[in-house]
């Protein structure tokens, strides 16, 4: 029997759980835990420069590796700084365990120094939370936290740890709990067979079907099965922003992604479909536009592991509660040996879709001419070329995020790492650090904007400390571009506070941290700059690329309209 | 429509706030709320009455079920059930009204549980509609204070909400 202090139990548990990295920042209430981490080498602690970055880094790590991200922060301001990152992970269903120091038990409720009711603060943005009430419960509570975070519909779990729970003087028996049971938590492991059969019959009879798949396929590791099913049926597929890469975008059955800034053909196909097969997607308002005008002629099959996602905003005709992977596998076996009943109609459907594709071909944006400012879209295309479409791309939030998602072509899941649900500026750079740690030998690019980057740029120091060789592509339009676009469209171009005045000299800033920066202002400079930047996978390089500040993101769905109601450029609309 | 949802909840600190928080966070409404321990010390029973169309009620029960602290729940209004609420009311009881109040109390099968020269304290149980009707009947006399427990309920027949 082994006797350990609460703090040592935490360090030991993390090792036994197979945790590689923990992202954190110390402070009074967490110091016993920090001391325990100091006395071991198994779990590597990454010292960030702001607790929000710890959560985003853990989040990026989790998205890329599929394993839960782990964060350690102190009480009060440490914990509240983590809140944005917890909410970001919650909205995108990312597995994360956040360990928060807390003031000593006997002080709780007294407004003690650095006391915040972090369980209360985070209640609406966590999958669950725990407060440790006795050191001996630490192993079991942590096991429950990891189990909850990573199973079913994943999400962040907060564990509040009063300082006296980790006191070095008190020791208790430690056993790593291999299993836990929660009587009130039994995530479904498979869908209802009868419902799946019903869905498959509809699929085989459909005349104008579309697959609409989301992040659930990515987190559910179901993209191989999905690809197989979609190919077998020969149906078109569109994904959400979160689902990008679950089906190879270079394949011709893929229409790109859908929704507010989704592709013209995706939104048109959705609107005209007679059957929508939604898997691991949640009919978010950025996808559906006005739900009362959403896909007027379609029957809807909705597969989701979370029952509360089904029929939440759009009623499903065939609801299936189950994990994407097993439901898809069951669908594949039911489809096996059968053919679609309306092959002719499907051919016509494809003709229609190819027509929509053709309408927009070569008209997506106007590339810059010599002497003109670079277009952000062409920069993203160049980044895609230089990385052969194989990089991990993280983004911040704004126009650059949409351009990254539109013009980088992803053939694999987990490659586009973006804050889809919460839309958190500041996410991209720390997330890239987390990704790079799980894939040190891959290209990891953060496509950002000068507004977003300034929200988390202190992390350059973290990259310095740990030699994190991410590439930062700053699409510098000298403005809060997405805000400005809305102001152009809705406020007669009154640009209230969307101009980034007094931008730093990014070149000097990056050099101050000892990294290489390259400034690009012309088309001729772009390719060589990218070649140089991506020459060494282990070197952090910052590309400050001056792009056209007047560019807008299109297509753009018209507010309150149907899926098909879109602005296609500054002068065209559907 | 009005629904009565009964929940078996882990008897853990913070569990109640998760339930209540869910209602405010998702803009659902709570008409009444009643919580107390059960025969199993690890469980509390919570009963909430809420108003919403089928879609909203479906979402409410799904989201409640998603809470880790919610072990089991039932929408009692889906079947035959018994609904009860207890109310204590202080009413003015002076002069001629004193007898009138007594008569009304009898009609409603309520009980006078405390008396002063100027008021009665009345205890009454029943479904919410009965309690509302009693208050309406007492209004002309003068209601001084009302304390209601909120609705509690149980299914009729063999159906049992347990683990
Ligand atoms: C933390 C946070 N604050 C505010 C916003 C609102 N917002 C969305 S996009 C945007 C502008 C982003 O500017 P930049 O990073 O330069 O990207 P650009 O749109 O110019 O490409 C803002 C302010 C947000 N998404 N997140
Ligand atoms: Mg910008």
From TrEMBL, chain A:
It catalyses: 2 pyruvate + H(+) = (2S)-2-acetolactate + CO2. Residues 396-545 form the Thiamine pyrophosphate enzyme TPP-binding domain. Keywords: Amino-acid biosynthesis, Branched-chain amino acid biosynthesis, Magnesium, Metal-binding, Thiamine pyrophosphate, Transferase. It holds the Pfam family TPP_enzyme_M. It comes from the Bacteria. Its EC number is 2.2.1.6. Residues 5-119 form the Thiamine pyrophosphate enzyme N-terminal TPP-binding domain. PANTHER family: ACETOLACTATE SYNTHASE CATALYTIC SUBUNIT, MITOCHONDRIAL, THIAMINE PYROPHOSPHATE ENZYMES. Belongs to the TPP enzyme family. This is Acetolactate synthase.
Automatic annotation (TrEMBL), chain B:
Belongs to the acetolactate synthase small subunit family. It catalyses: 2 pyruvate + H(+) = (2S)-2-acetolactate + CO2. It comes from the Bacteria. GO terms for molecular function: acetolactate synthase activity. PANTHER family: ACETOLACTATE SYNTHASE SMALL SUBUNIT, ACETOLACTATE SYNTHASE SMALL SUBUNIT 1, CHLOROPLASTIC. Pathway: Amino-acid biosynthesis; L-isoleucine biosynthesis; L-isoleucine from 2-oxobutanoate: step 1/4; Amino-acid biosynthesis; L-valine biosynthesis; L-valine from pyruvate: step 1/4. The lineage of its organism: Bacteria, Pseudomonadati, Pseudomonadota, Gammaproteobacteria, Oceanospirillales. Keywords: Amino-acid biosynthesis, Branched-chain amino acid biosynthesis, Transferase. This is Acetolactate synthase small subunit. Catalyzes the conversion of 2 pyruvate molecules into acetolactate in the first common step of the biosynthetic pathway of the branched-amino acids such as leucine, isoleucine, and valine. InterPro entries: Acetalactate_synth_ssu (IPR004789), Acetolactate_synth/TF_NikR_C (IPR027271), Acetolactate_synth_ssu_C (IPR019455), ACT-like_dom_sf (IPR045865), ACT_dom (IPR002912), AHAS_ACT (IPR039557), AHAS_small-like_ACT (IPR054480). It comes from Vreelandella malpeensis. Its EC number is 2.2.1.6.
């Amino acid at each position: 029997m082994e006797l350990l202090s609460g703090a040592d139990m935490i360090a030991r548990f993390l090792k036994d759980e197979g945790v590689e990295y923990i992202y954190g920042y110390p402070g009074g209430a967490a110091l016993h835990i920090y001391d325990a981490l100091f006395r071991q080498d198994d779990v590597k602690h990454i010292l960030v420069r702001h607790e929000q970055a710890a959560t985003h880094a853990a989040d990026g790590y989790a998205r890329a590796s599929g394993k839960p991200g782990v964060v350690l922060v102190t009480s009060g301001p440490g914990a509240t700084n983590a809140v944005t990152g917890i909410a970001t992970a919650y909205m995108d269903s990312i597995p994360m365990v956040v360990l928060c120091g807390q003031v000593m038990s006997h002080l709780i409720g007294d407004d003690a120094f650095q006391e915040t009711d972090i369980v209360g603060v985070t209640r609406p943005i966590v999958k669950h939370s725990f407060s440790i009430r006795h050191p001996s419960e630490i192993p079991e509570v942590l096991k429950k936290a990891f189990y909850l975070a990573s199973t079913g519909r994943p999400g962040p779990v907060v564990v509040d740890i009063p300082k006296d729970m980790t006191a070095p003087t008190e020791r208790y028996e430690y056993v790593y709990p291999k299993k836990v049971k929660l009587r009130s938590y039994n995530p479904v492991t498979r869908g209802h067979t009868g419902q799946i059969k019903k869905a498959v019959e509809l699929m085989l009879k459909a005349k104008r079907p579309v697959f609409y798949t989301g992040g659930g396929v990515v987190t559910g590791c179901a993209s191989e099965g999905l690809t197989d099913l979609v190919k077998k049926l020969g149906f078109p597929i569109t994904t959400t922003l979160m689902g990008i890469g679950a089906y190879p975008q270079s394949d011709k059955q893929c229409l790109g992604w859908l929704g507010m800034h989704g592709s013209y053909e995706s939104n048109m196909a959705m609107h005209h479909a007679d059957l929508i097969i939604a898997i691991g997607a949640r009919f978010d308002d950025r996808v559906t536009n006005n739900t009362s005008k959403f896909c007027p002629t379609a029957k809807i099959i909705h597969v989701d592991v979370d029952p509360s996602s089904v029929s939440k905003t759009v009623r499903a005709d065939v609801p299936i509660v189950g994990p994407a992977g097993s439901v898809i596998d069951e669908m594949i076996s039911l489809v096996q040996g059968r053919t679609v009943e309306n092959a002719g109609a499907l051919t016509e459907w494809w003709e229609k879709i190819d027509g929509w594709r053709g309408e927009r071909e070569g008209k997506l944006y106007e590339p810059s001419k010599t002497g003109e400012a670079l277009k952000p879209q062409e920069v993203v295309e160049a980044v895609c070329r230089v990385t052969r479409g194989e990089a991990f791309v993280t983004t911040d939030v704004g126009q650059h995020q949409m351009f990254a998602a539109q013009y980088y072509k992803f053939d694999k899941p987990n490659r586009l790492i973006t804050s889809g649900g919460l839309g958190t500026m500041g996410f991209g750079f720390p997330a890239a650090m987390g990704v790079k740690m799980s894939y040190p030998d891959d290209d990891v690019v953060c496509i950002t904007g000068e507004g977003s980057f300034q929200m988390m740029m202190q992390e350059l120091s973290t990259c310095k400390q740990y030699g994190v060789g991410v590439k930062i592509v700053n699409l510098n339009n000298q403005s809060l571009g997405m805000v400005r676009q809305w102001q152009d469209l809705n406020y007669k171009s009154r640009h209230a506070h969307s101009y980034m005045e007094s931008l730093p000299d990014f070149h000097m800033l990056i050099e101050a941290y000892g990294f290489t920066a390259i400034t690009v202002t012309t088309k001729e400079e772009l390719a060589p700059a990218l070649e140089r930047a991506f020459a060494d996978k282990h070197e952090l390089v910052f590309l400050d690329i001056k792009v056209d500040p007047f560019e807008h993101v299109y297509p753009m769905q018209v507010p309150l309209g149907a899926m098909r109601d879109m602005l296609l450029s500054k002068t065209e609309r559907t | 429509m009005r629904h009565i949802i009964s929940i078996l909840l882990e008897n853990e600190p913070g569990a109640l706030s998760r339930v209540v928080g869910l209602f405010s966070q998702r803009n659902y409404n709570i008409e009444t709320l009643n919580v107390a321990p059960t025969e199993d010390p690890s469980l509390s029973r919570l009963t909430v009455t809420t108003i919403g169309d089928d879609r909203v009620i479906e979402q409410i029960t799904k989201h409640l079920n998603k809470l880790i602290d919610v072990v089991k729940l039932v929408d009692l209004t889906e079947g035959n059930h018994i609904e009860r609420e207890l109310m204590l009311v202080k009413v003015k009881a002076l002069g001629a009204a004193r007898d009138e109040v007594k008569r009304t109390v009898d009609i409603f099968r309520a009980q006078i549980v405390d008396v002063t020269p100027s008021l009665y304290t009345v205890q009454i149980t029943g479904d919410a509609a009965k309690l509302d009707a009693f208050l309406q009947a007492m209004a002309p006399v003068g209601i001084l204070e009302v304390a209601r427990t909120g609705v509690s309920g149980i299914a009729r027949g063999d159906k049992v909400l347990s683990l």
